[in-house]
Amino acid sequence: GENVEQHPSTLSVQEGDSAVIKCTYSDSASNYFPWYKQELGKRPQLIIDIRSNVGEKKDQRIAVTLNKTAKHFSLHITETQPEDSAVYFCAARKTSYDKVIFGPGTSLSVIP
Amino acid sequence: DSGVTQTPKHLITATGQRVTLRCSPRSGDLSVYWYQQSLDQGLQFLIQYYNGEERAKGNILERFSAQQFPDLHSELNLSSLELGDSALYFCASSPQVAGGSDTQYFGPGTRLTVL
């Protein structure tokens, strides 16, 4: 079945540096790739998403890139701030009627 | 606030008991998903309902069941509870109509503690 892998599992960066989280998916029919941020004890919140007809999407300090041929996508956070510290989950889905498959998560720590 | 509500917020019970978790999706959303998140773990997909019908099943135990009612709220029933069932249970909803948004919106979760 569909599988999503995510690396690294933990990531520490200095405030102001960039952070990159990478995900790979197994089902080539996947065409929707959201990223969620989860702070400790809180709900996952969508921070950015990308569809398969787009190679890159940016929203302020956050960007996502997609390589459909290689079946991988990445989250880029620039100018990191302490409030970016959280667990980030990537996910993949085939159609709007299918379940979303989540990666195992990356714990990001931004050191002031 | 995502517009998805879950009750109760916290639940403490004993092994062997049965509990019901409730979820109300965002207005207009037809799909409801349930996830289990154990301590320091990822989001384990349990089950999905679309407009009252079961749509997809994940790693849901036979002791667990769910349903979606005509008003689109959903309930997750957990029975014969074990210590290992202690976790955060999230509900999410999405519109899931053709050409509509794929985005899932998560509720605040129910923290279940089994003693």
Briefly note the structural class of the backbone of chain A: mainly beta
**Strand/helix succession of chain A:** EEEEEEEEEEE
Separation, N- and C-terminal Cα atoms of chain B: 31 Å
Q: Which stretches of chain B of 5+ consecutive residues score pLDDT under 50?
A: none
Q: Give average pLDDT of chain B, whole number.
A: 91
Strand content of chain A: over 45%
Number of strand segments of chain B: 11
Give the biggest beta sheet of chain A.
Answer: 6 strands, mixed
Characterize the biggest β-sheet of chain B: 7 strands, mixed
Mass-distribution shape of chain B:
globular
Q: Which two protein chains have the largest interface (Cβ within 8 Å of the partner's Cβ), and how many residues from each? A: A-B, 21 and 26 residues
The helicity of chain B comes to: under 10%
Summarize the structure in words.
Chain A is mostly beta strands and 112 residues long. Chain A has strands at 4-7, 10-14, 19-25, 32-38, 45-51, 56-59, 62-67, 72-77, 86-92, 101-102, 106-111. With 115 residues, chain B is mainly β. Chain B is built from no helices and eleven strands. In chain B, strands 2, 4, 5, 6, 9, 10 and 11 form a seven-stranded mixed sheet that branches. In chain B, strands 1-3-8-7 form a four-stranded antiparallel sheet, with no helix packed on it. The mean pLDDT of chain B is 91.
Walk me through the topology.
The complex is a heterodimer of chains A (112) and B (115).
Chain A: E1 4-7, E2 10-14, E3 19-25, E4 32-38, E5 45-51, E6 56-59, E7 62-67, E8 72-77, E9 86-92, E10 101-102, E11 106-111
Parallel strand pairs in A: 2-11
Antiparallel strand pairs in A: 1-3, 3-8, 4-5, 4-9, 6-7, 7-8, 9-10, 9-11
Chain B: E1 5-7, E2 10-13, E3 19-24, E4 31-37, E5 44-50, E6 53-57, E7 64-68, E8 74-78, E9 87-94, E10 105-106, E11 110-114
Parallel strand pairs in B: 2-11
Antiparallel strand pairs in B: 1-3, 3-8, 4-5, 4-9, 5-6, 7-8, 9-10, 9-11
